[in-house]
Amino acid sequence: MSDWAPIAKEYDPLKAGSIDGTDEEPHDRAIWRAMLARYVPNKGVTGEPHLTLFVARLNLQTTEEKLKEVFSRYGDIRKIRLVRDLVTGFSKGYAFVEYKEERALLKAHRDANRLVIDQHEIFVDFELERTLKGWIPRRLGGGFGGKKESGQLRFGGRDRPFRKPINLPNVKNDFYGEGSSEKRNWSHEGTRDWRTRDRDQERSRDKRWPDRERSWAWGDSERERDSKEERSRARERKDRDR
């Protein structure tokens, strides 16, 4: 607990998928993808990564000129790279701003986050692709953030930092296979076992379905028989009354 920090110092997809970084099992399939990914940062990107800001959630109509106008308030800018689609040329909604001085970088990181540009509240953070060891982008199942509705939340970043874990004794539970402190060696074989288990569950569910139909049919026949007996008793009562 002494070296705990709310912001990730090294990227681990399994930790990023956990609210306090203590999970031992991935809770969604995207984490599996990130753990199996072998991502290499884009070597075509130039500039000093430690002087570069990542700017996201931009209005698709926002231009480089508008970004330069806003971010030049914090210091001298060396370069702005607005990421665009290679085919259409349209903005993808995020950009990278490189400053000349670290002082300007820190000031923009502190003050520009959640600034409104073209009716959009932007998100500003340090560049992570070339500065955070083990970084896996969101398109491969990694990244930070994510929507709550999708169930693919990622923690350890500025937008959603880790929560401090509760100090609980490490009690082994053989029934659930818990308590293992060793780091698991994830492989493609593990993913196959996971998918095979899902298929087996679906097959067993399909096998149980005809039994349910038969039980429902048996229940219907029982109800019909009971109604016939009631009708026959009613006839007997009428005959007695006559």
TrEMBL record:
Keywords: Nucleus, RNA-binding. One of its GO terms (molecular function) is snRNA binding. The keyword Cytoplasm does not apply. One of its GO terms (cellular component) is U12-type spliceosomal complex. Gene3D superfamilies: 3.30.70.330. One of its GO terms (biological process) is mRNA splicing, via spliceosome. CDD domains: RRM_snRNP35. InterPro entries: Nucleotide-bd_a/b_plait_sf (IPR012677), RBD_domain_sf (IPR035979), RRM_dom (IPR000504), snRNP35_RRM (IPR034146), U1_U11-U12_snRNP_70-35kDa (IPR051183). Residues 147-162, 180-242 have a biased composition (Basic and acidic residues). It is found in: Nucleus. Residues 51-129 form the RRM domain. Residues 147-242 are annotated as: Disordered. Its main location: nucleus. This is U11/U12 small nuclear ribonucleoprotein 35 kDa protein. It comes from Sterrhoptilus dennistouni. The lineage of its organism: Eukaryota, Metazoa, Chordata, Craniata, Vertebrata.
